[in-house]
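Project standup — Tuesday

K.O.: blocked on the structure for the chain from last sprint. Re-posting the sequence here as requested.
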Amino acid sequence: MSEPGNPKDSASAPIFLNKKNVRNFVVLLLKIGIASALLYWLVSSGRLEFSHLRNISWSPRTLGLVMLGVAAVWAGLLLLSLRLCLMVRSGGIELSLRRAFSLTSIGAFSGSILPGVVGGDVVKVVYLCRGEASTQRTFATTAIMCDRAVGLFSLFLLGSIVLIQSWAIGSLPFWSPILLIAPFGVLSAMIAVTILSRKRFPETFSLGNRGRNLASRIHMAVCVADHFVHRPFLLAGCIGLSLANHILVCCTFLIAAELLGGIEISSLQQFLLNPIAMVMNIVPITPGGVGVTESAFSYLYFAAGCSIGATIGILGRTIQYIAFIFVGFPAFIFRGK
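H.V.: unblocked you, prediction finished:
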C-alpha cells in the first residue's frame, strides 16, 4: 500500500477529488455567477433590452453591414498576425504570416470563450512553442505577453488621441475621471517601460523558491522588453498595426449602433467611449468578459445620453464572435498549422 501523502495517491485520485480541479471548477462557477448577475442587472434595469435585437430587420442592408463588420474583424486579425510575425521573428524564430494568422485566430476564438482575453494568449503560446528549443520557447512566451502589452498600450493610445481631439473641438460627450483611464494607461506604460529598460528592479526576493522563480521571470520579461525598446522602428510599427486593428474593431460597434437604428452620439464620441469599454474585456472575472464589457458600455453610453449602450456592446461583440468562429474554429481543428 502507498504511504499517506505518497504522490501516487494524488495521481490516482479521481479527477473530481483533485484539489486543483475542484478549485478551478469552483472559480469557473463563480465567474459564471458574476456574469449571470451582471447580465440580470442589465436586463432588469432596462439597460439591456433584447427587443432591440429582435426588431432588427433582416434586409440585404442588414446582411451587408454584418458582413462589413466581419470583414473588418478579419482585416484586424491579419494586422495582428503581421504584428506577431514581426515581434517573434525579431528573436530569430521563423513564423510565416499564414501560421501567425492561424495562431492569432485561435487566440481570438479561445479568448472569446475563456475567462478574459489573456486566456487566448495562453492557448496561442502552447501552439507557438511546440517544437521550439527551450530558449526560443522562453522568448516566444514572453514575446506573446509583450504582444498583448503592445495591443493594450495601443488601445489606451487610441483613447487618448480621440480624447485630446474631442476636447480640442469641444465634442466631449460628458466629463468624468473615467475618461482619463486611457491617458493614465499610456503614462503608466511609458513609466514601466522606462524602469524596465533601465533594469531598475529587485534582483533578489525573500520568498524562497517561488521568489527565485518570480525573479527569473521578471528578469526574462526585462530582457525581452529591453529587446523591443532598443528596436524603436519595430516597436513603432507594431503600435501602428495595433492602432489600425483597434480602429477596425471600434467600427464594429459603430455598425452595431447603425443596425439598431442609429444613435445621437457622434462617431467621434463613440470612438472615445469604445476603447475605454473594450479595456474591460481583459478583466478576467467572467468567461470572455461577458457581462463586464456590456456593463462598461452601458455606463459610458448612458452617461453620454444613450440608453442602449449595453445592446450596442453585445451586438458589436456578437459580430466579432461570428468572425472569430469562422476562422478560429477551423484553425483550432487543424492545431494552428
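K.O.: great, moving the ticket to review. The chain has a mean pLDDT of 79. The chain has one domain: 71-333.
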